[in-house]
Protein: Ring finger protein 151
Amino acid sequence: MADSSSSQSGGYDVEQFVNTPEYDLICTICHGVLRCPVRAACHHIFCKRCILQWLKRQETCPCCRKAVNQNRIFVMFKLSKSIGHMKIKCRNEILGCPETFPLAEQYRHSLRCAHELVPCPHQGCRAQLLRRDLEAHGGHCEHWRQPCPMGCGTVLSHRTQAQHNCYLQLRQEYALRQQNHRAIAAALQRKMQRMQSTMAHMKRQIGLICESLEVMDDLQEEEEGDQGDQGEASTSTSGL
Ligand SMILES: [Zn+2]
Ligand SMILES: [Zn+2]
Ligand SMILES: [Zn+2]
Ligand SMILES: [Zn+2]
Ligand SMILES: [Zn+2]
Structure:
């Protein structure tokens, strides 16, 4: 218990770093890498929290025993920044994350680390999973809820989703079918109109043919009448 609280308030775990940190970056109080380093008047450097906690018990430097004034310790911003550039391994390395990154980017990485343990986002679900398994879990989570995508207002779970007989969907399908039927009817009507106009055209043509046949009949009759008169003349010509 004492161990976990000291690691929380103290420096960074040395094991976390890709390369073993230099000796002068280690806090002599917590033995971790300096977190928010401060320098006392005696020039010894500690994590800010470590030395403030130490000074509650005794007001001397843990290294050299010189008196330390709590109001005369200074934050070392440059050192803090260069420690922030040091490469660390992901804290989820044991869960399978192979990534390394500068210490300062630890938080940003944790927001997208596929091996970070995160709670299921569905209300009422107490499952904790690796971020990469979240989607698969969502596929069968008992607490998964989603409003019907058709917009009918029904909230669906995985169990009710398959049985949901959405009236909006039925209505849409019906409207679609009706639209289809209307389109077919319109196409048929256009076809009929085309056939009607073809028929009218044919009727006119037949009329014309009939007319010309009548004219030919008349001509033939006339011709036959003429032939009776000119019978002799035509036989004499063919005889030549
Ligand atoms: Zn410390
Ligand atoms: Zn000192
Ligand atoms: Zn990670
Ligand atoms: Zn869940
Ligand atoms: Zn619905």
